[in-house]
Automatic annotation (TrEMBL):
Transmembrane feature ranges: 12-39, 45-68, 80-99, 105-124
Pfam families, sorted: Vps55
Any Gene Ontology biological process: late endosome to vacuole transport via multivesicular body sorting pathway
Gene Ontology cellular component annotations, sorted alphabetically: endosome; membrane
Subcellular location: Membrane
Keyword Transmembrane helix: yes
Record's bilayer topology term: Multi-pass membrane protein
Family: Belongs to the OB-RGRP/VPS55 family.
Organism: Brassica carinata (Ethiopian mustard)
Keyword terms of this UniProt record: Membrane, Transmembrane, Transmembrane helix
Name recorded for this polypeptide: Vacuolar protein sorting-associated protein 55 homolog
């Protein structure tokens, strides 16, 4: 287990790690476009903006409602919109590759970027659960 030292604060280390992961995801997104001189893969970056919106609008900025069994109209709508935007993030590169608008390498870089982005979101979710651990 990693123990925080006197000069090193765990929350700052976590924040720096999340920022690095998110930045590397965006860098891979841009590289998928720049390496193949085709900016169509940037269309899936739009979904990176859409994915956290249900949490901000319906969940009060918290991700805890995503794992709860509580229902209700707005909570169910938020869960549906989060899932639909996540699937859309995967589907856009596949559809663009099928239409031969992007190369296979760009699609694979997009998938790697998406994987890093999802890992970032899951780490943020875990950290926010640890903050509110009762």
């Amino acid at each position: 287990m990693f123990r925080c030292g006197f000069l090193l604060d765990c929350s700052n280390l976590l924040l720096a790690g999340l920022a690095f992961m998110f930045s590397s995801s965006i860098l891979l997104q841009i590289l998928a476009c720049a390496l193949y001189s085709n900016w169509w893969p940037m269309l899936s970056a739009l979904m990176y903006v859409v994915v956290p919106m249900p949490c901000m609008f319906f969940g009060g900025g918290s991700t805890q409602f995503l794992i709860s069994r509580d229902g209700g109209g707005w909570i169910d709508a938020a869960k549906f919109l989060t899932g639909a935007s996540t699937v859309g993030s995967l589907a856009i590169p596949i559809i663009l590759r099928h239409a031969q608008m992007i190369e296979t390498g760009a699609m694979l870089i997009e998938f790697t970027s998406f994987f890093i982005f999802i890992c970032t979101v899951m780490c943020f979710h875990r950290a926010s659960l640890d903050d509110y651990d009762w």
